[in-house]
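User: Second chain of the day. Same drill as before.
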Amino acid sequence: MSLDVMARGLAVARTRGVPSIPESAPWLFAASGLEANQHLSIYTTNSSHEYGASIKNAWSPDYPVTGYRFYFSNWVLRGNAGSLTQEVDGNQPVVIEGAAIITGGVRRQLSFSGQPGTTLAPGAGVWSDPIDLLVPPRSRIGIVTAWRAVVGSAAMIGSFFPVTANGDAWSVASTSRASFLTGGIIPNNAPSNLYAYGPNAAVAQGGDGRDVVLVLGDSIAFGTGEASNTADARNNRGWVARWLDSTEGGARRIAYGKLAAPSAACRQNTLASHFTRRGEMMAALPNLPFTRIINQMGLNDATGSLNTWRDRITVSNNLAKAIWPVPLLQLGFTPYTTTDTTQFTTAAGQTFVTSHDWPSGFTQQVQNALAGLPAGVDAFEFIGHLFDGRETLGAAAEGKWRADFSSINTTLQAATLAGATSITVRGPIPVGAAIAINAGQAGAAVTTVTAVSGVGNVTCTVFPAITGAMASGVPVRGVAVNDGLHPSSELAAWVAARAAARKAGLFGRD
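Assistant: Same format as last time:
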């Protein structure tokens, strides 16, 4: 059966028992798990990398949608770009040879103002034309992008993760990769120092009255502490995305678009002009594609002044709401500590990073101020108790990473040399777990499990490398973080499930 025939069949299905979606229905974010690009412009010094193709995967909402549109840009969010704004334009054109959507066995090419491809000048962005394709609830969607690089420079725009999870892949070559738009499987054959380009967000028509959310976030929402291959089954990274998409205890999924970047901070959003590119992105649609904003940022705005820290957040929030007049939920802060040789296995072994002290320091004072719902904040959610140890250890553990959530409590099954990137332990042990090895002893190490093979005694690939030699039999414990700041995949998933019930009181349904 041809793709056109299949597509016509889906179109007919809209009138045969499938809920009708009016042509006037609003465009709303509809691709949970889609990661925005994080690097600058498609350009390279290697002529064998002139052409590329990628597939980025995401999932449709819990209701039927139609008319998918995807946003491609020649700008990115870079909180660590060294400027006072998160929005950074590319410095070379982005040439998109073409793009396509794959879902339910159907592969349909996208168009841009009726054309199969487009060229984006630095700072430009474009939504693809609507695709007349009905997509059932909870469908996996893949977005294929074929591009041509500018030869002569040394970097590429794209995902922060070179090889992402759950089928995401990309390929480079010296000849056109446009053939992937109509068929074929994209191999992961790209060098590890290059990055895949694709859409930042997706919208579609359809909904059931539940809120749809724009997430503004830093590295915590971005999922920096999670290994690149440990997104969940629906490609969610970061605890906020996992939480919005969680169905634990019967919770409803909340569709979202996530614009987050490592080192992002509210102090980078203190002028209306700092929202220019994001504003243009939303204004190019007939309506706002979301009904609420979540601001997860604020931790990177810490300073020795309560008023300054609070005002950085509220100024950013007020500007966002002036551009997009919808309710805003401000999230509280996760812990930020250092550790001694206990390697995050105890609260007593952790020390607050300057200005991030709890429970009576600036961290708690700023949260209390935000919980008072100053201008720009319509709702506030304390989330620290889910990440810290106060539930089981009381006030002494407030603001310090908890160590009571993980099921990992095992031992090394073979001696390990300093610098090793793999260990053997008694399993099971999940990919993405942060682990402490020989905690409490001199030379104790903390690292993250990035791959697991075997049954029983399993081999774990870890990053970073083990810092010192370890004897067989030393303890291995699951911990919340390996750097004191970014929660592991294991903890992010655990918190998302624990907090799922909270969504009912925070997000509405018409």
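Residues 1-17, 157-163 have pLDDT under 50 and may be disordered.

User: Great, on to the next one.
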